[in-house]
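Consider a typical record:
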Amino acid sequence: MISERRKKALIEMAKRGTLEEQNIAEMIIRRSGISIEDEEKEKIEFKFSNKYEKRLLHQISGMVTNDPNVIYYTSNKKSKTIWIEVTKLQKIEIDLFYSIYRREIKEEMEITFAAFIQRNNIYPQKPMDNQEKPDIERIRKILNRADTIDKTHVRKQIGAFS
């Protein structure tokens, strides 16, 4: 197996070396199954829905490229699309992590929201009519999370002077 450093050196030699160096590098690259096209960076489009998914994409691309200063391109501030300069292999890896973490962070945020509602007792006085069968595991997660949230104190002033 060829190390990453050697792989990059071979690809660089195949692109910029003398004719003899290019031929040798290309022969080694072919034998090892490396594709020069896979190592070339290009601007690749990634879509997101909200600011948390955008931050998640930034984190993942930094992790995959091992570069905390990854450059992102957007068409405007309201756009839900960013372009990142990565290789095709890095794009595949980013897509994989993003699809998994995106689903998980959505679930965690929903649990945190439900825990906030639970902790601060933000419910109507009248019970709901058509309640679904409760998911015990989800309720346990919500109650555990609610214990970690500071309660928000609100002074009710409507009707205080009547």
